[in-house]
Predict the structure.
Amino acid sequence: MSRMPATWRADLFAGLAIAGLLLPEAVAYSRIGHLPPQAGVVALFAGLLLYPLAGNSRFAIVSSTSSSAAVMAAAVWALSDGNPVHVWIFSTALVMVTGVLFIIAGVGKLGDMTTYIAKPVLRGFTFGLALVIIAKQVADMVHVYPPYTDLFRYTAFLLAHMRDWNVYGLLLGFTAWLFLMMAARIPFLPVTLMVIALSIVAGHWIDWSQWHITLVGSLDMGMVHPGVPVLPEATWLRLTELGFGMVLILYAESYGSIRMFSLKYGDAFEPNRDLVALGIANMISGFFQGMPVGAGYSGTSANEAAGAQSRAAGLAAAAVLGVMVWIFRPALSQTPNPVLGAIVVYVLSHTLNPAAFRPYVRLHRDRSVVIAAILAVMFLGVLDGLMAGILFSLVVTLRRFSQPLLVQLGHLEGGHDYMDLALHTEAHPVPGLLILRPGEPLFFANADRIAQLAFEQTCRQKAQVHTLVLSLEESPDLDSTALESMANLFARLRQEGIQLVLARIKDRAFQGLQRLEPALPEQCLSLFSVAETVQAILNASAQK
């Protein structure tokens, strides 16, 4: 009986602790998405209230995130021609479409779809995106707005127009950022809320307009009206295309945060349930003109560090935020925009840690993928950069798997093992047999070349070899190209008087080989190990 009150007490304290972190970030991320501040607040309530009711993770804090805000802004800006009203309408529709796609993915059991984004791509994209967002926050502070989307020309334009900078806005933003960095050393201190409070208090003595510093403006929750935008069918189709990119980046963020804390505490992990929960939260957020939401790492880790015990911590945070918005809404409208920009820069500065790339340097793996993902965002913009990074990683993977690598196996004396002859000098070939094993799974990009290489190696030893044994242990299945390659290899070797035997065939690959026309002889297909297949061949030869 005593455990329940203790759990609720811990969740209440956690909710109190993270509320001061979430509200300033929600308002700040609205600026990234070119939306009014209430859009971030609506998203915050949608995520905090709905995910705990439908989701699985007890630590996940679902709210607007910097990356999803940037992706949304990039996706919507071209459609809306920069019209603020159109930006809000298209953003609302995009968030609703994103929610629908999440639900479809959850119902379709696509909980592992985040694996389509390699971690090096995601880390490179996050790093490059942080640079892009920070550059845009600086531009907002100094009131110079470059007409470019790529970071290089954007930064060059910004530096070329330094004489037009509002130095006071930059100074205020830098001061706020410096305060945030210093105060962050004190644990559990709501530094973002403090810096906003200090700037509001300073506004009683300082007329920000004298320094050409703009304010956030009215946090008008009365402008929030439920409804579905009325748009042409072509626009909905275009937003659906853009929604796939939004789902990928939101779920990649959420999956990483939720999965990490599930493993840490041994909690059950239900990705399909979380997909549906995120879908519901995004649909409701969009229905009330809010921003896209996901389980960001900063909010989730802060919730765990604050001692949350269950999903009720999110509900407690929503209750606290409701009181804060009700009481402090007029004051929040007096927040200088450079201070919000400083909050965004402060939050994203943790992303700019080169140590995240150390494993790729040490392991000599995927360095080109990380660099390509960073450069893609910087050169191509946010959404195109993400897609280009994913495409590059798939091309690199495809290229690696398509290498026609064949290993010759030999018998190890005193056992049944067959080892790589190049690595194990104690192994030796089996007389009359050439035993080869592809180094990668056979598929359309490498099957023909591997079959050709196997044919050439066999023909070079034609005088000593009567049977080629090809081990398919690396291939759980064979596509149509690989199946045709095996049939062609069998026919070509038969013309040379050499038998082909496929060993270690997996069940799905075996089913495909059985459907070939003309069918391969049964003695050419073996489900058994290389050792058992070789022994069967030798026994058959001895009986002749």
Q: What stands out?
A: The chain has a mean pLDDT of 86.
